[in-house]
Design brief:
Layout (H helix, E strand, L loop, with lengths): L7 H27 L1 H5 L9 H19 L2 H17 L1 H9 L1 H7 L3 H9 L1 H12 L5 H21 L1
Amino acid sequence: MVFNTKNTFITNYKLITIFILGILYINVGITHFTNPDFFLVIVPDYLPYHLFIVYASGLLEIILGFMLLFKKTRKYAGIGLVFLLILVFPANIFLYQSAEAQSVYEISKNKAFIRMFFQAPLILLAFWHSLPKEYKYFDALCGIIFIPTILYFITLA
Protein backbone atom coordinates (compact mmCIF):
# COMPACT_ATOMS: atom_id res chain seq x y z
CA MET A 1 0.00 0.00 0.00
CA VAL A 2 1.35 3.43 -0.93
CA PHE A 3 0.47 6.44 1.18
CA ASN A 4 0.26 9.90 -0.30
CA THR A 5 2.29 12.10 2.03
CA LYS A 6 1.48 15.27 0.09
CA ASN A 7 -0.69 17.78 1.82
CA THR A 8 -3.27 18.43 -0.88
CA PHE A 9 -4.50 21.61 0.81
CA ILE A 10 -1.09 23.28 0.79
CA THR A 11 -0.34 21.92 -2.70
CA ASN A 12 -3.57 23.42 -4.05
CA TYR A 13 -3.12 26.64 -2.08
CA LYS A 14 0.44 27.02 -3.35
CA LEU A 15 -0.79 26.50 -6.92
CA ILE A 16 -3.37 29.26 -6.41
CA THR A 17 -0.65 31.63 -5.14
CA ILE A 18 1.51 30.73 -8.14
CA PHE A 19 -1.23 31.63 -10.58
CA ILE A 20 -2.17 34.83 -8.77
CA LEU A 21 1.42 36.07 -8.67
CA GLY A 22 2.12 34.87 -12.21
CA ILE A 23 -0.80 36.93 -13.51
CA LEU A 24 0.24 39.86 -11.29
CA TYR A 25 3.78 39.83 -12.74
CA ILE A 26 2.46 39.61 -16.29
CA ASN A 27 0.09 42.52 -15.63
CA VAL A 28 2.74 44.71 -14.04
CA GLY A 29 5.17 43.82 -16.81
CA ILE A 30 2.67 44.92 -19.45
CA THR A 31 2.18 48.18 -17.55
CA HIS A 32 5.90 48.89 -18.02
CA PHE A 33 5.12 49.22 -21.73
CA THR A 34 1.69 50.86 -21.57
CA ASN A 35 2.64 53.40 -18.88
CA PRO A 36 6.45 53.62 -18.65
CA ASP A 37 6.29 57.07 -17.00
CA PHE A 38 4.82 55.43 -13.91
CA PHE A 39 8.04 53.45 -13.48
CA LEU A 40 10.51 56.02 -14.81
CA VAL A 41 9.94 58.21 -11.77
CA ILE A 42 11.40 55.55 -9.43
CA VAL A 43 14.46 54.61 -11.47
CA PRO A 44 17.35 55.97 -9.40
CA ASP A 45 19.13 58.99 -10.89
CA TYR A 46 22.53 57.27 -10.72
CA LEU A 47 21.46 54.59 -13.22
CA PRO A 48 21.78 55.23 -16.97
CA TYR A 49 19.25 54.36 -19.67
CA HIS A 50 16.12 54.76 -17.55
CA LEU A 51 13.65 53.85 -20.30
CA PHE A 52 15.65 50.76 -21.23
CA ILE A 53 15.63 49.66 -17.58
CA VAL A 54 11.85 50.11 -17.38
CA TYR A 55 11.27 48.14 -20.59
CA ALA A 56 13.80 45.41 -19.72
CA SER A 57 12.38 44.88 -16.23
CA GLY A 58 8.86 44.82 -17.69
CA LEU A 59 9.82 42.26 -20.29
CA LEU A 60 11.44 40.09 -17.63
CA GLU A 61 8.33 40.32 -15.46
CA ILE A 62 6.16 39.20 -18.39
CA ILE A 63 8.46 36.31 -19.32
CA LEU A 64 9.00 35.14 -15.74
CA GLY A 65 5.30 35.54 -14.93
CA PHE A 66 4.41 33.26 -17.86
CA MET A 67 7.15 30.80 -16.91
CA LEU A 68 5.74 30.65 -13.37
CA LEU A 69 2.44 29.33 -14.73
CA PHE A 70 4.01 26.16 -16.14
CA LYS A 71 5.34 23.36 -13.98
CA LYS A 72 8.32 22.65 -16.29
CA THR A 73 9.62 26.24 -16.08
CA ARG A 74 8.39 27.21 -12.60
CA LYS A 75 11.70 26.51 -10.84
CA TYR A 76 13.60 28.81 -13.21
CA ALA A 77 10.88 31.46 -13.04
CA GLY A 78 10.99 31.50 -9.24
CA ILE A 79 14.76 31.84 -9.18
CA GLY A 80 14.64 34.47 -11.92
CA LEU A 81 12.05 36.44 -9.96
CA VAL A 82 14.23 36.32 -6.84
CA PHE A 83 17.06 37.95 -8.80
CA LEU A 84 14.76 40.42 -10.54
CA LEU A 85 13.18 41.50 -7.26
CA ILE A 86 16.63 42.05 -5.77
CA LEU A 87 17.74 44.02 -8.85
CA VAL A 88 14.72 46.34 -8.76
CA PHE A 89 14.96 46.96 -5.01
CA PRO A 90 16.93 50.21 -5.55
CA ALA A 91 13.74 51.63 -7.08
CA ASN A 92 12.00 51.10 -3.74
CA ILE A 93 14.87 52.79 -1.92
CA PHE A 94 14.75 55.69 -4.40
CA LEU A 95 10.99 56.02 -3.86
CA TYR A 96 11.63 56.32 -0.14
CA GLN A 97 14.34 58.96 -0.69
CA SER A 98 12.62 61.03 -3.38
CA ALA A 99 9.91 63.50 -2.42
CA GLU A 100 9.17 63.95 -6.14
CA ALA A 101 8.57 60.21 -6.65
CA GLN A 102 6.42 60.08 -3.51
CA SER A 103 4.37 62.98 -4.88
CA VAL A 104 3.85 61.25 -8.23
CA TYR A 105 2.83 58.01 -6.48
CA GLU A 106 0.74 60.03 -4.00
CA ILE A 107 2.24 58.29 -1.00
CA SER A 108 3.93 59.53 2.13
CA LYS A 109 7.51 58.82 3.09
CA ASN A 110 6.17 56.41 5.73
CA LYS A 111 4.18 54.46 3.11
CA ALA A 112 7.25 54.37 0.87
CA PHE A 113 9.20 52.97 3.83
CA ILE A 114 6.59 50.25 4.43
CA ARG A 115 6.56 49.43 0.72
CA MET A 116 10.31 48.67 0.82
CA PHE A 117 9.73 45.87 3.30
CA PHE A 118 7.14 44.12 1.13
CA GLN A 119 9.92 43.24 -1.30
CA ALA A 120 11.21 40.61 1.17
CA PRO A 121 7.95 38.58 1.21
CA LEU A 122 7.81 38.76 -2.59
CA ILE A 123 11.35 37.35 -2.74
CA LEU A 124 10.42 34.63 -0.25
CA LEU A 125 7.30 33.73 -2.25
CA ALA A 126 9.27 33.60 -5.52
CA PHE A 127 11.76 31.23 -3.88
CA TRP A 128 8.88 29.12 -2.49
CA HIS A 129 7.40 28.88 -5.96
CA SER A 130 10.72 27.59 -7.30
CA LEU A 131 10.62 24.59 -4.94
CA PRO A 132 8.98 21.48 -6.40
CA LYS A 133 8.86 19.64 -3.06
CA GLU A 134 6.91 20.34 0.10
CA TYR A 135 8.52 21.69 3.23
CA LYS A 136 5.98 21.68 6.04
CA TYR A 137 7.02 24.78 8.01
CA PHE A 138 8.31 26.80 5.07
CA ASP A 139 5.09 26.07 3.16
CA ALA A 140 3.07 27.23 6.15
CA LEU A 141 5.14 30.42 6.54
CA CYS A 142 4.85 31.31 2.85
CA GLY A 143 1.16 30.45 2.80
CA ILE A 144 0.60 32.86 5.66
CA ILE A 145 2.72 35.74 4.31
CA PHE A 146 1.05 35.49 0.91
CA ILE A 147 -2.21 36.91 2.26
CA PRO A 148 -0.99 40.27 3.66
CA THR A 149 1.47 40.62 0.78
CA ILE A 150 -1.14 40.22 -1.95
CA LEU A 151 -3.63 42.38 -0.04
CA TYR A 152 -1.03 45.13 0.24
CA PHE A 153 -0.26 45.09 -3.48
CA ILE A 154 -3.94 44.99 -4.41
CA THR A 155 -4.41 48.21 -2.43
CA LEU A 156 -1.69 49.87 -4.54
CA ALA A 157 -3.69 49.40 -7.74
